[in-house]
UniProtKB/TrEMBL annotation:
<dbReference type="InterPro" id="IPR008269">
    <property type="entry name" value="Lon_proteolytic"/>
</dbReference>
<dbReference type="GO" id="GO:0005524">
    <property type="term" value="F:ATP binding"/>
</dbReference>
<keyword id="KW-0227">DNA damage</keyword>
<dbReference type="GO" id="GO:0000725">
    <property type="term" value="P:recombinational repair"/>
</dbReference>
<protein>
    <recommendedName>
        <fullName>RecA family profile 1 domain-containing protein</fullName>
    </recommendedName>
</protein>
<dbReference type="GO" id="GO:0004252">
    <property type="term" value="F:serine-type endopeptidase activity"/>
</dbReference>
<dbReference type="InterPro" id="IPR020588">
    <property type="entry name" value="RecA_ATP-bd"/>
</dbReference>
<dbReference type="GO" id="GO:0003684">
    <property type="term" value="F:damaged DNA binding"/>
</dbReference>
<dbReference type="InterPro" id="IPR027417">
    <property type="entry name" value="P-loop_NTPase"/>
</dbReference>
<keyword id="KW-0479">Metal-binding</keyword>
<dbReference type="GO" id="GO:0008270">
    <property type="term" value="F:zinc ion binding"/>
</dbReference>
<keyword id="KW-0067">ATP-binding</keyword>
<keyword id="KW-0547">Nucleotide-binding</keyword>
<dbReference type="GO" id="GO:0004176">
    <property type="term" value="F:ATP-dependent peptidase activity"/>
</dbReference>
<dbReference type="InterPro" id="IPR004504">
    <property type="entry name" value="DNA_repair_RadA"/>
</dbReference>
<keyword id="KW-0234">DNA repair</keyword>
<dbReference type="InterPro" id="IPR014721">
    <property type="entry name" value="Ribsml_uS5_D2-typ_fold_subgr"/>
</dbReference>
Length: 549
């Protein structure tokens, strides 16, 4: 017998490794590996699969497994069939009549209205409620992702405390418990984090576990295997594993299968489940793309590691508005809501501030290369400050184009349009763009503000303070309209801006709605890039025709 056959024989018949082989095509079991399956005559379909251990035959664990995740052999089939009698199926706690309705197609108009989607758990943090669409939905599965050290575990522990507070009013009896499970930290480390946050609800339970079967046993630790917890938070999905899946924790199969089982838990027990997910070097959510398809809600925590500012962005929400954003500050007490998110990304020189007696304070001198625009995150307007610096290259040094919060491709496009349509050349100059507080621009409505900041830095002439610039720049140099103008102008009015330049509006109804802001916010309508620059720099004391080329 050669070395390979000895290896297969030893692995197949060893008492230490209770392993077998089966055909992936027809599920025929074999004592050892072979090239062809004699049952279906297929080649290369024989794979090794470990038998289920006796302690993993708990009916609760089997109830959440997918049918194709079972071990198909005679011994394992007997275990599965025996456990299935006591297992919790997808509709295990539903009445027989209800289960029949779920398996029979009926007309849409005959489907009974359900109040489950209206059962939201309101959190005490208004920003979190805003991002979730009004609160956490019962029976929902949420994925929270973010870069390492950005504050995912801190936010998850805060949400766990908020859920415990919301589900347990002062006079509530009995208490509804929340389970926080950490696969990355010990119980002492979780306790240390809770002490730093300064709050720990008595109905919040913690555990440190990475075996998903053990986790489900913890969740159903009540009488008669009933669900003992009203909410589950798992940190993180990449650290847990299913013992019946022959791959390492964090692999594609493990992440997909474990997420599907948590989905069954959330829907079956009608409890909110929150999973923490890792991200890759490029910032994408780690794991298979199907992970984002399985869950109901996808949240991403963003921010500059050098800044305390954090943004919670909603990328997907089956029960609310997508693309909402929450603004927070990372403190020693965790993530705190900003007092006025509208002023989070602009400097005081662009808004009117007053002291305690109501007298306007003295503003610092205006600086060139600074412009204000308002972007939309879902239905929320976000005023941001764009800062530009243009410097002549000396001694034949190479020019640079750098942007923080703006893509390199966007800067190249704007510089090309300015050179071709406005006769402004940056060929022998280095260009630097920065968006205040680490914000990232993701919509074209900020094009006009970017271009104006570049021209202001080039001419050393600051723009008038307290002004708003909106407009998408086309390749022809024309200004294209932007969406949700009324919401943007309302935000500009709230923060005390005095003038605005926006694309020409042809709809009479839209102009009528915008006219109500014309008293406190002077609105200038322009149709092209040249019209906007002529208006801007003529009003600022600089002649646009004298811009250096």
């Amino acid at each position: 017998m050669d070395g390979n056959n000895k290896l297969f024989s030893r692995r197949a018949f060893s008492g230490q490794h209770d392993a077998n082989f089966y055909c992936r095509n027809c599920s025929q079991p074999f004592a050892k590996w072979q090239g062809q399956c004699p049952a279906c005559e297929s080649w290369g379909q024989i794979s090794e699969r470990k038998l289920l251990s006796s302690d993993s035959s708990n009916g609760i664990a089997f109830g959440y497994r997918q049918p194709n995740a079972h071990t198909y052999n005679k011994t394992a089939k007997g275990i599965i069939q025996a456990a299935a009698k006591d297992s919790i199926s997808w509709s295990g706690h539903l009445k027989a009549s209800t289960q029949t309705k779920l398996t029979q197609p009926i007309k849409m108009v005959h489907v009974e209205d359900s109040t489950l989607l209206d059962e939201r758990i309101a959190l005490e943090n208004k920003e979190l409620n805003w991002v979730f669409g009004g609160g956490v939905v019962q029976g929902s599965l949420t994925l929270l992702s973010g870069s390492p050290g950005i504050g995912k575990s801190t936010l998850a522990l805060q949400v766990a405390n908020m859920l415990a507070d919301s589900l347990n009013p002062i006079d509530s009896d009995p208490l509804q418990q929340i389970l926080y499970i950490s696969g990355e930290e010990s119980l002492a480390q979780v306790r240390l984090r809770a002490q730093r946050l300064g709050k720990s609800n008595s109905s919040l339970y913690v555990a440190s576990e990475i075996n998903i079967d053990t986790i489900f046993e913890l969740v159903h630790s009540g009488e008669n295997s009933e669900c003992s917890f009203a909410g589950v938070i798992m940190d993180s999905i990449q650290t847990i594993f299913a013992p019946d899946i022959p791959s390492a924790a964090g692999s594609v199969n493990q992440v997909k299968e474990c997420t599907l089982r948590f989905l069954r838990l959330a829907k079956e027990q009608n409890i909110p489940v929150i999973l923490i997910g890792h991200v890759t070097k490029s910032g994408d959510i780690a794991g298979p793309k199907v992970l984002e398809h399985i869950v109901d809600t996808v949240m991403q925590l963003e921010g500059d590691p050098q800044s305390s500012r954090r943004f919670l962005r909603c990328l997907k929400n089956r029960f609310g508005t997508t693309s909402e954003i929450g603004v927070f500050d990372m403190t020693d007490k965790g993530l705190m809501t900003l007092t006025n998110p509208l002023l989070a990304y602009i400097s005081p020189t662009h808004v009117e501030t007053c002291d305690a007696s109501g007298v306007p304070t003295t503003q610092s001198p205006e600086c060139d290369g600074s412009a204000i625009t308002i972007t939309m995150e879902g239905s929320r307007p976000i005023p941001i400050e764009i800062q530009a610096l243009v410097n002549r290259s000396h001694h034949n040094s190479l020019t640079q184009i750098r942007g923080v919060g703006v893509s390199y491709e966007k800067l190249q496009l704007l510089l090309a349009v300015l050179e071709r349509r406005a006769n402004v050349k940056f060929g022998n100059r280095s260009v630097f763009i920065n968006v205040a507080e680490g914000y990232t621009i993701q919509e074209p409505a900020a094009d006009l503000a970017l271009a104006a900041a570049l021209i202001s830095a080039l001419t050393n002439h600051p723009l008038h303070s307290r002004g708003l610039l909106l407009g998408e720049i086309a390749l022809s140099g024309a200004l294209r309209p932007v969406k949700m103008l009324e919401s943007r102008l309302m935000a500009a009015h709230k923060i005390g801006l005095k003038w605005s330049i926006i694309p020409h509006v042809t709809c009479p109804e839209t102009r009528r709605k915008l006219s109500k802001y014309d008293g406190s916010l002077k609105i200038h309508y322009v149709s092209s890039l040249m019209d906007a620059f002529t208006l801007l720099f003529r009003a600022g004391g600089a002649k646009f025709t004298n811009i250096p080329c």
